[in-house]
Amino acid sequence: MNFWATWCAPCRKEMPLLVAVQSEYGPRGVQVVGPSIDEPEDRETAERFAREMRINYPILHGHTTEDMKPLGLATAIPATAIFDRDGRRVFRIIGEVHEDAIRSRLDWLLSDRTAAAPPELDLPPGVSPEHFAQHEAGIEEDEDEHHSEGEHEEEGGRPFRPDPFDRAKAERSVGSLEDVVAVGRSARGR
Fold first, then answer.
1. How far is 27 from 42, CA to CA, in rounded Å?
2. What is the pLDDT of residues 94-142, one digit of tens each?
3. What is the pLDDT of residues 41-85, one digit of tens each?
4. Which residues are bridge partners to 93 per DSSP?
5. What pLDDT, in 10s, does the model give residues 14-30?
6. 160, 171, 88, 70: which is closest to 122 by C-alpha?
7. Mean pLDDT over residues 3-20, rounded?
8. How far lies 31's CA from each of 14, 18, 77, in Å?
9. Residue 15, class by beta-carbon neighbours within 10 Å (0-12 exposed, 13-18 middle, 19+ buried)?
10. pTM reported for the whole predicted model
């Protein structure tokens, strides 16, 4: 589930990769879904953009950054939540999706899962888990308080642990995850 908007340059940049992921992984049961946070009056622009980009996955309209919060995505776009077949959020990618980040997570989910899982949270360079946790909690930092890129691993000697995924809260904001999966299946003709 990749939250995006037409005015977001990183969103536009990652879309060809998401189209390729849908083409490659769709036959294996993966479904990309793209909730747009464009304003309701910009729906036609978003639909035209999706056609021009040849988006091969369902685009959902009428969403806002508020819909992202229950998924543990905070409020900046692009942001991606990856769910397993049972509708459990397993991974989050904050910022532009990069090929190695999404493929390693999808490959792990489609495997026997005996190998170590990729990190649950993938952050852009320069954003520490502590900074993201503050953003997720709605706490704003001054620019000079941002953490350096080397501080991603731990805070106070403890590994970063995101808040647990609240499925009920997420379903209230984006609709039933089963409904999202059903949209994906119908888009694939299954």
1. 32
2. 999 999 999 999 999 999 999 999 999 999 999 999 999 998 888 865 4
3. 999 999 999 999 999 999 999 999 999 999 999 999 999 999 999
4. 80, 122
5. 999 999 999 999 999 99
6. 160
7. 96
8. 16, 10, 20
9. buried
10. 0.76
How is residue 141 written in tokens? 């930092």
Going by DSSP bridges, is the β-strand pair 2-3/154-155 parallel, antiparallel, or unpaired? unpaired
Place of tokens 């997720």: 136
Report yes or no: 3 and 79 within 8 Å, Cβ to Cβ: yes
Q: Which two tokens stand for residue 129?
A: 């888990």
Domains and CATH numbers, the chain: 2-120+162-187 (3.40.30.10)
pLDDT for 141 equals 55
Q: Would you list the DSSP string of the chain? A: -EEB-TT-HHHHHHHHHHHHHHHHHGGGT----EEB-S-GGGHHHHHHHHHHTT--S-EE-S--GGGTGGGT-TT-SSEEEEE-TTS-EEEEEESS--HHHHHHHHHHHHS-S-SPPPPSEE--TT--HHHHHHHHTT----GGGPPPGGG-SEETTEE--PPPP-HHHHHHHH--HHHHHHHHHHHTT-
